[in-house]
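Service request form, structural biology core

Requester: graduate student, group of Dr. S.
Request type: structure prediction, single chain
Budget code: on file
Notes: please return the result as structure tokens.

Sequence provided:
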Amino acid sequence: MRIITKVVPLDWQRYDTLGDYFDNGDALHFRITDTGNDEYNKLILIHELIEELMTRHRGISEKDILEFDLKFDDSKQEGEPGDQIDAPYRNEHRFAEMIEKMICHELGIDWIKYNEDLNKVFDGKA
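Core staff response, request fulfilled:
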């Protein structure tokens, strides 16, 4: 299996997200929104790799994940799509987030500041 990873501007994503993955038949693609910080970009990639591995293993389709994510309305719901109780990949998303948080701790990155910085990407301030 080929795995292709690209760090891209937010407007290159299929929707407003920091990380996305999809299989196009010949390769598994990961697109990470450029945060302007290489460590942050790698942390997002790690999260996406873990989430994709877990969802694939558990038979949760990328199609179902994308469909759910596209319906998500952050003006009515708090957090990320994967945090929602009805997200088909909630457990896998939260597990990936736990690992991401542990790596932040090991790198000395404050989790709250990290999330604040990531949210700035959507405000165009990154």
